[in-house]
Structures are given as C-alpha cells and as structure tokens.
Amino acid sequence: MTIVRRFALACFIATGLNARAQQGILKVQADKVTATIQPTMWGIFFEDINFGADGGLYAELVKNRSFEFTKPLMGWTKEGHKVVEGSMLILNRKAEDPNNPRFLRVTADHEGPGDLGLVNEGFRGMGIKKGVRYFFSILYRQPQTGITLHIGLKDAKGNSLGDTVLVPTETGEQWHKATATITATATEPKASMTLGFEGDGRIDVDMISLFPGDTWRNRPGGLRADMVQWLADMKPGFIRFPGGCIVEGMDLNNRYQWKKTVGPVEDRQFEINRWNVEFPRRSTPDYFQSHGLGFFEYFQLAEDIGAQPLPILNCGMACQFNTAELVPLDQEDPYIQDALDLVEFANGDTTTRWGKLRASMGHPASFHLQMMGVGNENWGPQYVERLQEFTKAIKARYPDLKLVNSSGTDPDGARFDYLNGELRSMHADLIDEHYYRNPEWFFANARRYDGYPRGSSHIFAGEYAAQSDHTVSPENKNCWLTALSEAAFMTGLERNADVVSMASYAPLFANADAWQWTPDLIWVNNLQSYGTPDYYVQQLFSLNKGTGVVPLTLDGHTVAGQDSLYATACVDDATHDLIIKVVNASGQPAVKTIAVEGRKLGKTGTLTVLQNNDLGAVNTFDQPRQVAPHTTTLQTGKTISLAMEPYSFNIIRIPLR
Q1: Which keywords has UniProt assigned to this entry (predicted)?
Q2: Is there a catalytic annotation at residue 377?
Q3: Are residues 230 and 97 part of one domain?
C-alpha cells in the first residue's frame, strides 16, 4: 500500500471517530500575543545541488568555459574538416595562474569559415529565446592579428538561431577581452553554441562565455531571472547559502572556501561539485562549480529580495558520511580567520582589506550581516570542540553576531540528544535541526516544540522536506500529501515562535534533466520553471507571517490533530490584520465556526485555499498550477464560518478594527 493510500485510509477512520468533536468552536484570543514572530521566521535554503547554480540560477550558458573540468574539453566538441592533431591544444599555466591554469591554443593554417571550430553543448543544452540578445565574451591573446571568430547558435537539428563575427585586434603577451552579441531568431530548449576560427595564425582563448540579456535586473553575467523571481515572490526573511553538504566537501580539499568565490570571475577557482559522484544512480560527471555565483552574488541576491544573509562556513570537518576528515584542533586558525574575514567582507569599512574588495566589486555599503552558521550537519565531540573555538573567537570580536550550530543529521536519537545537550550548555544562539521524514512524521510532530524550554537557545528548522517514498530515494515526489503534511507541521513552528526563530525547506532547486536528490521546492528546465505544491505552502506561510502569535484553541486545546485539523493564528501589527491558518488533513469536508475574542473584525476579509482531492497530485511543466492557491472574499460577522474542502490548507486574513 502506498503512503498516499495508507494516509487516506487513516484519515477516513479518524473522520468517523471524530464526528462528535466536529461540533467544537475554534476560539481565537486576538488581543493576547503569546510569542513574537521574527522577521526571519520563514526563509530559503540554497545549495548547489541538482544543477542549482551552474546550469541553473547562474545564467552562464557555456559549460566548462575555461577548460578546468577534470577532462579539459568536457562539454566541447571539435568540428571542421581541417581539425588535425595539434590544431587545438590545452595548455596549463599553473605556476602563472593557479586559479585558472588552463587555456586553449588554436593554430590555424589558412582556414576558412567552418574549417576549424568548437561546439559547446551547454548544460544539457542551452535554453535560447526568440528576440533575446545573447552576450558573448572571450579572453584571448595572440602574437599577431590574422584570426576571425565566427560565433553561432544552433537548434537541436543544426539550424541557425543567429550568428555574428568577431575580429580580435589586440596583440602581445597580455590577455584581452572581446565581446559580441547575437539576437536569437527562434526559441529552442536544446541549443548549442559554435565557435569557428578563420584565417592564418595562432590564438590563445579562455573564459568563453555566453549570457542572456534578460538576467535578473539585467545585470551582465547575472542570474536567471525567472528563478530569482520565484524566490522574490516568497518574500523570505533570510537566505541560507552555500549549503548544505557543499560546505563540508567530500574531503577538506573539496570544501567550500568563500575566498575563492569573490573578485573577478576569471580569477575564481573551479571546483568539482561534491554531488558529481555522490549517487551512482544519478551520475553527473560534468557537475563542477565555476563560482561565478559566489559570496558577493549571494549577498547581493539576499539584498535584492529583502532577505537577511545566512552564510554557513566549514568548521574544519569534511562530510562525515564521506571521509570524516578533520583538521587538528591546533590547526584551526585559518578556518576561524576565514569566518572573521567574512564578517569584514560583508560589513567592514571600505578601508579594511575585505571591505575594500567588496567595494571594488560594486557594493561600498555594508551587507548588514547579522548571523552565520559554523559547520553543516556535523556531529560528535569533535564538532563541539571545534565549535567552541569558533564561538570564542567570533564572539570576542563580534559579540552581537548570532551563530547557528548543527544538531546533526536527525531530529532524534543518541547523536541528536548529545548535541542538543552540549549546545544548550554552551547557550547556543540557534540550534539547527533537520528533518527528512515521511508525511506521517510531520503530522505527528506538529506539537514537537510545545514542550521545548523557553528563554534559552532558539531553533532553526534548517532543512526539512516530507519524503513520499523514503529519504534519498529517487522516487520521492513533491505531491500534495507531502506539502499538506509540511503545512500541518509548520503550524506548530509558528505556534511556537518563541522557540523557533527560523525555518527553511531543502533543497531549493532541481534541474529536470540533471538532478541528484528529490524532493525539491522548485523545478526548472532550460526555459521553464514551476513551483511545487510544497513551494506554495512555503510561500503562503511567508506572505502571511504576521508579527505575533495569538492563542487558537478547539475545546480549550491546541489544534494539532483533533478532527484532523492543524491550526495557528497570529496578528500583523504592520497591516492590522488577523491571520488564521487551518489545515484540514481529512478526506472529508469540514465546517467550523471561528469565534474571535478581544478585537473587533472588519466586515470582509480574504480566504486563500490550497487544495486538491488527490493526495498524489503534482505540478508539472505542462500543468504548473494543478496545486496552487486561490483567493476569494470572505464575509465576517461576530463569528466566522469556515467551510473547508477535503485535504486543504486554508488561510483567513481579516482586518482588525
């Protein structure tokens, strides 16, 4: 029996057992704020998994643009009937440029158009849109002029989508940049780019790049606009970056190092992506990190969408599922210094070393960094020892900076219990809890934080997603059941906002042609994107966040499963609204009377409903809104009558008088 059928049967039985209790009234005490909801309550978690950065959010269309993949010509194909041995060679200048050592040397011998060239396949193809300008750039050097470049775009059948000619004019030993543009004549999801060499002579080329002109905010070399828009539309309180297991790396050489991701893009060091080899069933040998999307761009993205930045740094531990490699405690200083320097990069005056670099990249003002994570999903005494060193050094210089600490990989068990105890004894600012469990766990844990201690360490629900099959299964789906269970669980997070300060679903993005992990919040291909049912749950909580929790009860009790209902209420001081969220997890419709005490209501409000009768329903590229919210006007009086459809998430928003 599938998990969807099993859950539906359980709901049917529960509906019959609770028939008598259905007569109860939902009571809201609108004048009694029990907890402050932090502006950071609902956020987003970004990791470069599932081609989330290169081939995804980072809008570069050329794969392996500087020949730094393990196989230097991966992504490239030589073409032309005059391609002979030695006409195109990869050279390595490691001593001269260790960050970007390789380049391509082309030697032409009176070649004509089409005689000698390369084709780049892009990231599972290139998404090209009719009428959009595409910006080509290349670094080159040549001892003398004589070479003409032919740049073209072709569809999957080899038909031209546009082309241009570029003549490099500079000579000498220095590298120079040349640019050109192509306006596409048709739309094609699986295009490729051709680069032909005509003439007589030698030319070295590197950083061969192609960007669409319609990037987010039209920034040259920027981000894919539709993907950023999905994030902006959530109005998140924070964005966590760069992960995730990316932070730890397969070993410490493979760990994410933020200093390698800032400065001019041609000076940023390529890195193999740790998800390249993680799952043999989804092998992605062409998965690397160009770091064109680096820490400056992450901070800029956070600022653009009005979110607080939450960077996570390596604490001297590689992934404990891979190598579990450690830096000895007496060699932690460089790792700690990276953390201190990051605060300076984000917030420092432009006279400081790292603040000056930030300003040179186009942002003299501070990014207002207020929090940072130390370690990702690390555990054991070895983590606690290293965390203590980090905390001591960071707090000594930046006492107001909030630190996020890992509670390991699971929400229970010996590993969790040990870390929870140790972190609380250290008075940790934020304890990062992760939950990848089946939907039944999420329903059952809607009261998880009701009994947590108040006035001590706060919780960051840093990674969570209901698994329709099982964790790490490629069969997991972003179906309506997973989203509904997450909505039920999130009512418990909001209700306990005095304990839970932050929460984020993970992972964020997945490329339909190049994913490693499911489920994921937003799915993309080279031209399209859509939000899953889980996305709309996250968005609705974030857009209806409120500022303070107020009591909502059914027959005097917290609503966390009675009558298959899960509910929470809050007020929004900025808009003077009352916001009520109710999940009906039953397969039967439900009608409830809501009585609001302590405040008078406006005559009308809104009712937003996310619903589908099929718990297995999913959104797709062809049907992107099969599960999507709909808003209608709601009439109110002394009480509110709420008629809920089966399997529905309902949000009432009413002005307070």
Answers
A1: Glycoprotein, Hydrolase, Signal
A2: yes
A3: no
